[in-house]
Structures
1.
Amino acid sequence: MQLIRTKSSLRKILLSLCFVLSAIANAQEQSGSLTVEDIEFIGLRRTRPAIITRHLTFEKGSAISPEIIEENYQRLLATNFFKEVIFSTRPGSARGKLIVVIEVRERVWPVLEFAGGFTELDGWYLSPLGIRAYNIFCSGQSLGLRMIIGDRVGGLNLNWHHPDLFASGIDFRLDIDGLGRDIIHYFDGREVLHHHETGVLRLSFSGHRGLGRYLTAGYSAGSVKPDSSAKFTANDSAFTTFPSIIQKDLGRKKVNSFWLSLQADTRDNTIFPRKGFWGAISVEAADREFGSEMQFTRWIFDARFFGSRNRRAVAALHLKAAKISDSAPYYERFYLGGANSLRGFPERSLTPVGWGTELLLGSFELRIPLSRRASFPPPLSAALFIESGAIGTPEQRINRDSFQYAAGFGVRLKLPLVGVLRMDFAYPLDKEDFKFHVSLGQTF
């Protein structure tokens, strides 16, 4: 029997050896390729086979290879439905056909979670305490509650995920957030932290098959309450006299909206992609007809390209364009400058008072693994980058003179549980200065 076990550190060697033996044994097959005749499951006590096959990239009749087995092994582990996953194969009814056997040990009890990451609005964050129940009702559902602590954000998040709502093939997600956020303003060149209490309920729906795989639609119902005062970061003194463009949006406001997103993802890895593409075009509309006190329409185009010739150094390109209605409140608009925007400048420092209604951003990175170990993603890597961005307002639209440029280098360190620690030295091209940025996760 041909055996492929993806369990130990020798997993990839065994995979490659078994498929070499399979190819020799099936040398009389003209095509020389191996296909899946059937998929068998061992160890399923609660989970339905369809829950597993939903996460696989192959099916009956598909081609199979060591790389495909490895990718699907990682995909099943990432679901956290199982404590252990073992893939094996045995000969099928004819040459070149294999039966893939998937043996699992199911997870029964909820697990404690520790995670980290970043968002474009809030910067880096940690979830030092969280609990999640996986595979609820044996249907692939998950329910989690986590605490969020970050450099400018803190609060709680409750989330529920149903991968096949009402057996319709629709992926459903529910998120409820109660967060406090500190937004950065610059008044006369001085940095001000402005606290906002936010609460939001988000519903999102996406498909699994056909065109539905590329579409996501959703509804958001929330409220935002900016404080009536802020604090200067230099001396912690109070600031109460806001410009009129900000003053008009103070007080608790309801912000309810619908959105639609068209996106595609062909990346080979989400943490350190070496090839592929991720892109999205989204539109969001808030209106009084939805119960919102604020009215605006927001469009965002975001595209990210990854390529590598030698499977080590990776070229990465990010292009982003965004626009929002002039009537949008400042906290729904765009910012520029900082670790997750245009590096080389202090956080939000290129953002006009009242924030921007137009945004253009481009970034190119060359990512180079520094570790000699074959582990992937690499535990240590470097990056060289150059980027440019511009932001506009209703009074000052983007033009050729609006763009700012920066270049630099950085180091990426993979940490247990937290993810990727990112450190960048960035230099504005029109200033004799540099900025050191520290954050979590890749820039894109």
2.
Amino acid sequence: MCLGIPGQVVQIVDADNHLAKVDVSGVQRTISVRLLAAEGIAQGDWVLVHVGFAMAKIDQEEADLTLEAVKQMGQAYYDEIEAFDSTAII
């Protein structure tokens, strides 16, 4: 199962190529934020991450609520974190 999961932008890695490092439940990965280029993404922003792409910019409250809901899914949450941890954009 693939879920969208909240991640917080910790660093803009490559602004020209729209790459940012995000933290998802303690796991950090570089993802594409190209789909949100028009909105502008900065360090500290929350985004909804799916298969290595930021799909939506969300606020802190939505991030907290979504993380809580996803964690209640049990193993699906841990599978998603494992999948996030094992992938990277090169």
3.
Amino acid sequence: MIIFTSQITPRLQYIWNFISHELTGKDVCITEDTKFYVSQSGLHINYSHQRLLNNEFWITPHQLLFERNIQQHEITCFEWNQLKVFFKTKGDIEFDIAAASFYLMSRYEEYLPHQKDIYGRFAHENALAFKQQFLHRPIVNEWFMHFKQMLQSKDNTFQPIKKSFEWLPTYDIDEAYSFMYKTAGRRIGGIAKDFFKGNLKRIIQRQKVINYKVSDPFDAYEWMDKLHQQFQLSPKYFFLVAHKNGKYDKNILPDNPALIKLIQQHAEKYSVGIHPSWQSGNKISLLKKEINLLEKIVNKVIKASRQHFIRFTMPHTFRQLIQNGISDDFSMGYGSINGFRASVASSFYWYDLEKEAITTLLIHPFCFMDANSFYEQKQDALTALNEMRTYYQTVKQVNGRFISIWHNTFLGTDEKFKGWREAYKTFANEMKA
């Protein structure tokens, strides 16, 4: 596969390499040399304003990939193969699939002035995918499925790579235990809070847990291990190791032997990553300290991360992760609604739009999180299970990677989350059936 263009830019090189990897598994040859382009064999894609060959696949480009600034673009969506598309153009396809994919995957709109939610994050209501009602679909992958067929029709020697569907279960451990191993101050504060709320049942339960008469309601780890063994799952865990507690950082502290033991036990069996504290988002120096601490606990280099509360800002958060040795980030999704934030169900390298540079940070998008279903979408366990099933089927249809986020809190025995662990086991059983 060879691509001709009038000008090779970092944006153009980035997105066409991604498209090529999705379609062929290889880097693409991009050229500005007309003679070289014409002389080559195989599939020809002309990404310019003038047709060069009768048998080439011709796309007249939108200006986005040739720009070097960030500006507001007027976007009008229309239907193509029953899918929403934009950046209408001429040629052998009705829209600029490369520019549209780049716009969504680079999170271009998050660099523009926008409304923030109550946590200071990009509000999902701003997103084109939400406004145009395709947030629930990995629409970039769906475009590629049709694009692949069009390329094969143009050149029957073109052989796309066969991709396989994958489910990657991941877990955020940001509150390892509900009652156990808390400081005296936090324990007393919890009892006082329950007392003033008239929650006598919880006070009694707390005392039973502390006296080792019943297990902690958030201690789901043995149950989770058995589930992984039963269904042969290889999950990834993200641990919060904040140096002190805060409004949004409620885990027991990392100098507590119980948390150290818990982390080490999981690091022996599973892949682990850092779950940067809320405080580290306000004080950059804390991120390095937390990564170093986790590395010391597990005696391994930490390369993976997922933001606590899915709190990140373009491009600053990702730059900080790169500066601190993180190579894989699992935060690309919303902490306010389930769906595809970058409209894709494949991993991709982050493009720093301000620096116009391809980076070394590999982004792994998720589309389902239990906390979104429960707290934001107000779903019960069965409704959430059906939603998870739908995302699974949607991603499977494009042979993508389905990444889910669950918390130990939902998989324990807390009455608040009754039925959720059963729903999760049902899903795991269906996945491996």
